[in-house]
Request: fold
Amino acid sequence: MVFNLNHEVEAARIIRHMLQPRRYHISRYPSAVKREPHGAHAVDMKSWAVPKGPSLDTKDKRLAVQVEDHPIAYSGFEGTIAAGQYGAGRVIIWDKGTWTPLGSDPHKDYLVGNLKFTLHGHKLGGNRALVRMRVDRVGGKQPPWLLIKEKDGFTRSAQEFNVVEALPDSVANSKSAASAAQWV
Reply:
């Protein structure tokens, strides 16, 4: 999944941000969350890999591993990334839309490690939080976070509905990650 974060939010207005969850076709169907960090003038997006994909259930706390920033120009890419390259494999734009920060200073919230926001996507909507875990407790080079669905009108039990399995296709062209190689 992909989120874009803008730290130039003015208190008097709400700035909407780009949201673009992606789906990579590998054995565990990870998603990448990307968010734009610096508004309309940003050149990179903050990104997280979410191995189990997003959930609509508030009981699910999904691991979200922060990965390298991605250029905004990458936001329209669907196809196959060559073997041996970062993110190799088939990629689709699983969802797209915007997000609105719930705090008054999303840049500060990101730095502190507790970013709350509302999603306005084709598949994902409602309130969520990205909460950074303590690196010294989990180890590793990449900062681990948790992607948490907050209770609202978009909440659904994971037993009744799995959004990743129920809506597997691209929002850009109605293709699935499994068939991406056929349309590159």
About this structure: The chain has a mean pLDDT of 76. The CA atoms of residues 114 and 131 lie 5 Å apart. The longest helix spans residues 106-112.
